[in-house]
Amino acid sequence: MNHLAYQCHVILNESETLNSLKDEKFDITVVDGFNPCSFLVAEKLGLPFVAVFPGTFANGPQVGIPSTLSYVPREELMSLISAIVQNQVQTKFENVIKEHFPAGSRPVLSELYLEAELWIYNTDFSFEFAHLLLPNTVYIGGLLAKPAKPLSQVSKLLLEDESVPKMSDICMNLSLRF
Which residues contact 125 (CB under 8 A, 6 or more apart)? Predict the structure, then answer.
């Protein structure tokens, strides 16, 4: 996480770029839910934000998603090592915040996570434990999936040819062997 804090320091020092972004008068920003710096940049620009998280609900408790025992096993309990790493991450970014935000209006990362207008998770509900979801939380599993392309002529001919073994035949044969 050192590199993320360092990158954040460099980005927040780019006052010309930040001023240029402010001058554009954007309505909202889309931030990376994994990188705490993206929340700080949105805060610096004074913009509301939508956070996109690239995977499962690893940050559920941070963003206020309830994880009651009746729904979710006690997976959110941190080990000692996890707690130390999390504390180091917070400390690294606290130093960046102290340097780039005035004393009276310093944001707190844990509060910034709760300010997202919308949390988008690139996962599928079937990969997750059942969760109570907040109204500002959505799944968009399949974000990286591409639509199917039409079959080429060669593929069509192979599918129609009875002498060529089909994938379903091959899979069935393999499963019968084991």
Answer: 139, 141
Tokens of 160: 């129609």
> 29-53 b/e with 16+ CB inside 10 Å = b?
bebebeebbbbbbbbbbebebbbbb
Are 48 and 118 in contact by the 8 Å Cβ rule? The answer is no
Mean pLDDT of 105-131: 79
Task: Establish how many alpha carbons lie within 13 A of residue 68's alpha carbon, considering only the half-sphere containing its beta carbon.
Answer: 4
What is the Cα–Cα distance from 141 to 123, expressed in whole angstroms? Answer: 4
Burial of 118 (0-12, 13-18, 19+ CB in 10 A): middle
CA 136 to centroid of chain Cα atoms: 14
Q: What are phi and psi of 146, to 5 degrees?
A: -105, 150
Q: Is the pTM of this model over 0.90?
A: no
Decide if pLDDT at 38 tops 70. yes
